[in-house]
């Protein structure tokens, strides 16, 4: 009996490993389903990103935009160094990082589209407060992109809506619908925010990434304390979904601090 269970277990494991689109998330090792070809989702992402930028007021000069650029680049480089050291630089081949600041003081938000297209809104800067605070949010957003949460979410959406033929079919038949599924899957502007587990995973990975880049990870719970105060003061945090609760996030981040310190490189890589 026991042998049989073991055999079935083995068959199950082998078939899981052979499923197309099953990938492992870096750092956490979680298995995820990415049904959409990376270059395909990036093509859609880069187009949508340009669309958002063209419809927004992008801040092109000044210290705030420069800081968004600086922090983004610093964490990007640290992530690249980490993957190189893991002999896994190929993982990053299709990323085209970009870090833009959008003038909108009423929006306390930031997001990252697949392939590394990051946007911050000026409304979140009073809460990030300083460079290290900004690195908390930047690490989190970069983590969403590295963990392919957009692809995972979109794969789920396609499966739920029973859309066959994949996203390529939707793009050619109904580009508007492809755009809606994409923005919805990312939780940008509407509908479906990332799941609680994806948010926690981005918190965890983001904490490690900011540490690799030489930012003290202790700033992460401090940022969330400020976010908590902002929300309690009646502010609407468009940044991320409302779950997990800020309290859970803070507790988790504090729990992960010892591990984050092992990645910490003062001065960055
Ligand atoms: Zn998030």
Bound molecules: zinc ion
Termini separation = 53 Å
Uncertain runs are: 12-18
Output the strand order for the largest sheet: 3-4-6-5
- Helix proportion: 55-70%
Main sheet specs: 4 strands, mixed
User: How many separate domains?
Assistant: 1
How many helices?
11
Q: Whole-number radius of gyration?
A: 19 Å
Number of strands: 6
Residue-averaged pLDDT:
86
Morphology: globular
Strand content: 5-15%
What kind of assembly state do the chains in view correspond to? single chain
Based on secondary structure, the structural category is alpha+beta
SSE sequence, one letter per element: HEEHEHEEEHHHHHHHH
Overall description:
The structure is a single chain. This protein has 269 residues and is an alpha+beta fold. The protein has one domain (31-263). Helix content is 59%, strand content 8%. It is built from eleven helices and six strands. The strands form two sheets. It has a four-stranded mixed beta sheet with strand order 3-4-6-5, with helices on both faces. Strands 1-2 form a two-stranded antiparallel sheet. Strand 5 and strand 6 form a beta hairpin. Helix 5 crosses helix 9 (196-212) and helix 7 (166-173) packs across helix 8 (175-186). Mean pLDDT is 86; it is low at 12-18. The structure holds zinc ion (ZN).
Question: Which descriptors would you attach to this protein?
Answer:
269 residues; 11 helices; binds zinc ion; 4-stranded mixed sheet; two-stranded antiparallel sheet; 6 strands; alpha+beta
List the helices and strands and how they pair.
Elements: H1 2-18, E1 22-24, E2 31-33, H2 38-54, E3 58-59, H3 62-85, E4 98-102, E5 110-113, E6 117-121, H4 125-128, H5 131-146, H6 149-160, H7 166-173, H8 175-186, H9 196-212, H10 219-232, H11 246-263
Parallel strand pairs: 4-6
Antiparallel strand pairs: 1-2, 3-4, 5-6
Helix pairs in contact: 3-5, 5-9, 5-10, 6-8, 7-8, 9-11, 10-11
Zinc ion binds at residues 140, 144, 194, 199, 202, 240.
């Amino acid at each position: 009996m026991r042998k049989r269970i073991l055999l079935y277990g083995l068959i199950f494991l082998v078939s899981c490993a052979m499923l197309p689109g099953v990938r492992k998330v870096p750092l956490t090792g979680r298995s995820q389903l990415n049904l959409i070809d990376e270059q395909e989702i990036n093509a859609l992402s880069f187009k949508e990103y340009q669309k958002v930028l063209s419809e927004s007021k992008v801040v092109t000069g000044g210290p705030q935009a420069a800081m968004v650029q600086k922090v983004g680049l610093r964490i990007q480089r640290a992530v690249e160094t980490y993957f190189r050291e893991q002999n896994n630089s190929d993982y990053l081949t299709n990323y085209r990082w970009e870090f833009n600041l959008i003038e909108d003081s009423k929006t306390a938000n930031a997001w990252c589209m697949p392939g590394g297209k990051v946007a911050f809104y000026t409304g979140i800067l009073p809460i990030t407060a300083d460079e290290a605070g900004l690195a908390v949010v930047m690490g989190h957003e970069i983590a969403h992109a590295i963990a392919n949460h957009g692809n995972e979410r979109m794969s789920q959406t396609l499966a739920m809506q029973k859309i066959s033929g994949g996203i390529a079919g939707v793009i050619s038949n109904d580009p508007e619908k492809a755009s809606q599924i994409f923005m919805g899957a990312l939780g940008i502007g509407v509908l479906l925010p990332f799941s609680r587990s994806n948010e926690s995973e981005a918190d965890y990975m983001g904490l490690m990434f900011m540490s690799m880049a030489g930012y003290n990870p202790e700033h992460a719970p401090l940022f969330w304390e400020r976010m908590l105060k902002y929300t309690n003061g009646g502010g609407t945090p468009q940044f991320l979904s409302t779950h997990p609760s800020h309290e859970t996030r803070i507790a988790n981040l504090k729990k992960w601090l010892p591990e984050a310190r092992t990645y910490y490189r003062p001065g960055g890589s």
